[in-house]
Write a structure and sequence with these properties.
globular, 2 strands
């Protein structure tokens, strides 16, 4: 099992990094569009739609995908960006206000409400993958690293010091101590980026120019907290559907949503924040 997990991780890393830095813009958009459609398929299962409902949901998801790709190819700086920014606003409101309220509930909404929420989870993430990568692959990688650093730090801090459960009804393995470790690790990462940005002209340097990078580091801490919300929200959906993994598409890792759950709650909000900040986005 461990060998399978490692092999899958290595293959995925090579493919994603290769596409991120070497693929043409349209090829990258298509690549992450395929990931988004797989995520929609998994979400249709988590939403407990009927087979007919799943078919309709996937048909509509495909139609949305086609429309978004066409908009990107034809007008990447005009209509596409206008829709992207609207999606980032909706996603920010959802992850800061709606998702925490859903997590506090014991009963899930109906299947189609959950399914529509899936579009709010998936499509702004696709927009963020495209917009942030167009701004700079290094910018997208730096933001994604917030999630990875928070996840690793939370695991080790929780394993070493975890005593108080963060959300026992949703994800029994998560602790407040783990969350604190994640915040501390991301704070260190943010300070390191701020210092590096001041020392040399990195692609992300403009983000850290204002007030010695303090607002950027604070924003990174908010994103780290939201990454936990994204993780918990998908766990909540899986628990409600009686599923351990979103699918078995990735041997040893589960499904696509299992790998991008925390990114869905951070990348769109980061793109929204960068809309108002100096820098490449």
């Amino acid at each position: 099992m461990l060998l399978t997990r490692v092999i899958t991780a290595v293959i995925a890393l090579v493919v994603v990094v290769g596409m991120l830095f070497f693929a043409a813009a349209t090829a990258w958009a298509l690549f992450v569009l395929a990931i988004a459609l797989l995520a929609c398929w998994e979400w249709s299962r988590l939403s407990a739609l009927t087979r007919r409902g799943q078919a309709l949901y996937l048909f509509l998801s495909g139609a949305i995908a086609g429309g978004l790709l066409l908009a990107y190819v034809r007008d990447p700086d005009g209509g596409f960006m206008a829709v992207a920014r609207a999606a980032f606003v909706v996603a920010t409101i959802f992850w800061i206000a709606a998702a925490p309220m859903w997590l506090a509930r014991h009963a899930r909404p109906g299947p189609w409400i959950c399914a529509i929420a899936g579009w709010i989870v998936v499509w702004p993430t696709w927009f963020a993958f495209v917009v942030l990568r167009d701004a700079s692959p290094w910018l997208l990688l730096a933001i994604a690293a917030i999630v990875w650093i928070a996840d690793v730090a939370a695991y080790f801090a929780g394993k070493s010091f975890g005593r108080h459960k963060l959300a026992p009804a949703v994800s029994p393995g998560k602790t407040w101590e783990g969350a604190a470790g994640a915040i501390a690790a991301v704070a260190s990462y943010g300070v390191a980026l701020a210092l590096a940005a001041r020392a040399r002209p990195l692609p992300i340097a403009p983000v850290f120019e204002f007030a010695l990078g303090t607002p950027a580091v604070v924003a990174m801490l908010v994103l780290a907290a939201l990454s936990v919300v994204g993780d918990l929200f998908e766990s909540w959906m899986k628990r409600g559907a009686g599923m351990k993994d979103s699918s078995r598409l990735l041997p040893g890792h589960g499904g696509v949503l299992d790998r991008i759950d925390a990114l869905t709650s951070t990348l769109p909000v980061a793109a929204f924040a960068l809309w108002f900040a100096p820098g490449p986005a």
